[in-house]
Amino acid sequence: MNNEEKVWNILEKLGLTVTVYNNLHADAVTVNNQILVSGRILNSPEFVYVMAHEIAHYVLHTDHRSNSIKNEAEANRWAIKFLTTDVHHIRSYVEFMQINGIPGKLLDMVQDVLTPIVLSRVE
After folding, report:
1. CA–CA separation, 56 vs 74, rounded Å?
2. 3-state DSSP call for residue 44?
3. CA quadruple 91, 94, 46, 70: dihedral positive or negative?
4. What is the pLDDT of residues 54-103, one digit of tens each?
5. Using CA atoms, how far apart are residues 72 and 102, in angstroms rounded to an integer?
6. How far is C-alpha 27 from the geometric centre of its chain's CA atoms?
7. Beta-sheet strands, E only, within the chain
8. Who has the most CB within 10 Å: 2, 54, 70, 123?
């Protein structure tokens, strides 16, 4: 199962609905059990990561209303971990980020999450 399928699968399991909202000022936002998604990211490489990030807000019971750096960091880390289940074929951190639409500003966090996984493959 690829990560896009994995995202849709967990959305279904959690009972979350996804609604396209073209006037949204952000890529997506979670409100209760609904994720509002901007139409501009539906077919973009960022879609998988954005959805994983929004799922993280739901699972972690955090939201954008407080706009806290801590909430966003926790959602970023959860989303990256969620997307790492199938990384045996990934050759670099950047490749992983590109495949999953992860923003470049999260490179340090991606390295932090993936390094133990990559090292365990070598041992």
Report:
1. 8
2. coil
3. positive
4. 999 999 987 655 668 888 999 999 999 999 976 777 788 999 999 999 99
5. 14
6. 12
7. 17-20, 28-31, 34-37
8. 54
Candidates 92, 99, 89, 58; CA nearest to 75 is 58
Pairing type for strands 17-20 and 34-37 reads parallel
Q: What are phi and psi of 16, to 5 degrees?
A: -90, 140
Task: Report pLDDT for 46.
Answer: 94
Instruction: Find out whether 49 and 79 touch, Cβ atoms under 8 Å.
Output: yes
Q: How is residue 17 written in tokens?
A: 């609905």
DSSP 57: H
The pLDDT assigned to 117 comes to 77
75 Cβ neighbours under 8 A, 6+ residues apart: 53, 54, 56, 57, 60, 62
